[in-house]
């Protein structure tokens, strides 16, 4: 065996260990307690004593999940006069944009960069951030906005406070309370203890469809979900580029000449507005992880950070003379692309999306292309709009089958693999949130189930709120 092949095989062996470690991590974590000295093996079941749960609030609408999707649902309803509660597990709002540090929102105009097809609360937040120099639009073949997501956290607080939404931060959704087939309350856990929030209507903006799943409404998962990515903010890459001709972080992290190289994937990123040569890099991928499973989510987060460390080691050892670190910030949560989907009144298809299908109940528009990250390997599929300048998202894809007073909003909507690859991005999910909030208000006002509201009135009300209704 020559030295080159021996080195290659040795490198491959070193890189295989972490991937095996991820695949084993969930079962190892579950078995750890049983193998720890002095700790008994866990029983199959533990019987809890019956309890009475105090009601913390009674509201018109309870939104579970405080991403921008959830915030916009809550604010849209509150501005119409609803009494609203908003539950978020983190200590701040914003979801993937803030907790996962994904700082890019895609264009709000059609593919010809002419007609405004996304507006409402999305453009309101962009305008608010612009007044604080916390957003910019770089020159690019694909127009987009780059956000200072720390400023976004604060601006979302302001938005929620102004709308008089009752926030519940650091709060976990635990279980639904269903009465006569209708969701009557959600059980939460926070520092105060176990409590309940009663509401007339609900929005599941958890991303993973946690509420509708635990209610027993129909959901599904594809056999292979798109892999999650753990972002990182790195400092000094521009300076390294000036000192090392040809340096490209998006290529270096996959270069097999480095022992720490990641499995070939797809990297992208953006400068941090107001940062000191700081760059948000999205280059990791955790294959085979279903992040709606708690053990796999834990393992994915650890594996994602391992990959970030590998990226930093490549930079440190080869471009920083082995001194210092480029790492500035890690996210609070890994960026999840896909888990569960609710079975809704309509499943949006790739054919409808790429064909520019127009829906009478359209509540959102988009131009982001079909973008499917291969669940098992390095490949990525892009498909672009050709027959229309933008596509539409129908309200019926947010209404779970069998639901009377709950909607989904965000990436747990009903869409096939291709359509989901496009509509999953934040500017699209934002519109779903605003529409779900308005729809719940209309259902409350009319006394009708969420699947029977007047969708023409829904579109009129969204337009009155500044949304782009095309």
Task: Give a topology summary.
Elements: H1 3-35, E1 55-64, H2 68-79, E2 84-87, E3 104-106, H3 121-130, E4 135-136, E5 144-147, H4 149-162, E6 166-168, E7 172-179, E8 182-190, E9 193-204, H5 210-215, E10 219-220, E11 232-235, H6 237-243, H7 249-252, E12 268-271, E13 278-282, H8 294-319, E14 327-329, E15 341-342, H9 350-354, E16 362-366, E17 370-373, E18 380-383, E19 391-394, E20 406-408, H10 417-423, H11 426-446, H12 455-464
Parallel strand pairs: 1-2, 1-9, 2-6, 9-20
Antiparallel strand pairs: 3-5, 4-5, 7-8, 8-9, 10-15, 11-13, 11-14, 12-13, 16-19, 17-18
Verbal overview:
The chain has helices at 3-35, 68-79, 121-130, 149-162, 210-215, 237-243, 249-252, 294-319, 350-354, 417-423, 426-446, 455-464, and strands at residues 55-64, 84-87, 104-106, 135-136, 144-147, 166-168, 172-179, 182-190, 193-204, 219-220, 232-235, 268-271, 278-282, 327-329, 341-342, 362-366, 370-373, 380-383, 391-394, 406-408. With 470 residues, it is an alpha+beta fold. The chain folds into 2 domains: 55-224 and 338-464, 3-Layer(bba) Sandwich (FAD/NAD(P)-binding domain), CATH 3.50.50.60; 227-329. The strands form 6 sheets. Strands 1, 2, 6, 7, 8, 9 and 20 form a 7-stranded mixed beta sheet that branches. α1 (3-35) packs antiparallel against α8 (294-319), α2 runs parallel beside α11 and α11 crosses α12. The longest helix is centred in the N-terminal third of the chain and has 33 residues, at 3-35. Mean pLDDT is 92; it is low at 1-20.
């Amino acid at each position: 065996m020559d030295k080159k092949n021996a080195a290659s095989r040795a490198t491959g062996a070193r890189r295989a260990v972490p991937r095996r470690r991820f695949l084993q991590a969930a079962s190892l974590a579950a078995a750890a307690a049983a193998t720890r000295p002095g700790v008994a093996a866990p029983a199959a079941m533990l019987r809890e004593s019956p309890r009475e749960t105090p009601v913390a609030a009674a509201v018109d609408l309870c939104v579970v999940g405080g991403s921008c999707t959830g915030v916009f649902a809550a604010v849209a309803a509150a501005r119409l006069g609803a009494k609203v509660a908003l539950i978020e597990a983190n200590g701040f709002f914003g979801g993937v944009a803030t907790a996962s540090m994904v700082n890019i929102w895609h264009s709000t105009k059609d593919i010809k960069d002419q007609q405004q097809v996304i507006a409402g609360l999305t453009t309101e937040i962009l305008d608010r951030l612009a007044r604080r120099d916390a957003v910019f639009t770089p020159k690019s073949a694909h127009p987009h906005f780059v956000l200072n997501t720390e400023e976004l956290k604060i601006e979302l607080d302001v938005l929620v406070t102004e709308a008089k939404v009752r926030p519940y931060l650091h709060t976990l959704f635990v279980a639904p309370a269903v009465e006569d087939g209708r969701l009557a309350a959600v059980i939460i856990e926070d520092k105060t203890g176990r409590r309940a929030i009663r509401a007339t209507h609900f929005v599941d903006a958890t991303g993973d469809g946690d509420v509708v799943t635990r209610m027993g409404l129909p959901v599904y998962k594809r056999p292979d979900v798109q892999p999650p990515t753990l972002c990182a903010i790195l400092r000094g890459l521009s300076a390294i580029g000036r000192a090392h001709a040809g340096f490209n972080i998006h290529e270096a992290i996959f270069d097999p000449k480095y022992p720490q190289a990641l499995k070939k994937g797809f990297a992208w990123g953006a400068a941090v507005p107001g940062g000191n040569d700081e760059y948000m890099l999205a280059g990791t991928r955790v294959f085979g992880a279903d992040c709606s499973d708690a053990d796999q989510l834990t393992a994915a987060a650890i594996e994602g950070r391992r990959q970030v460390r590998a990226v930093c080691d490549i930079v440190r050892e080869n471009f920083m003379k082995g001194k210092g670190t480029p790492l500035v910030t890690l996210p609070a949560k890994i960026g999840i692309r896909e888990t569960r989907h609710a079975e809704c009144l309509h499943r949006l298809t790739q054919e409808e999306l790429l064909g520019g299908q127009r829906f009478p109940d359209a509540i959102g528009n988009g131009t982001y292309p079909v973008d499917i990250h291969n669940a098992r390997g390095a490949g990525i599929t892009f498909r672009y709009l050709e027959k229309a300048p933008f596509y539409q998202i129908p309200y019926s894809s947010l209404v779970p089958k069998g639901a009377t007073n709950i909607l989904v909003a965000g990436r747990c909507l009903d869409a096939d693999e291709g359509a989901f690859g496009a509509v999953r991005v934040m500017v699209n999910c934002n519109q779903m949130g605003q529409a779900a909030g308005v729809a719940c208000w209309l259902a409350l006002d009319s006394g009708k189930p969420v699947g029977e509201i007047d969708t023409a009135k829904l579109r009129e009300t969204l337009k009155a709120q500044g949304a782009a209704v095309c």
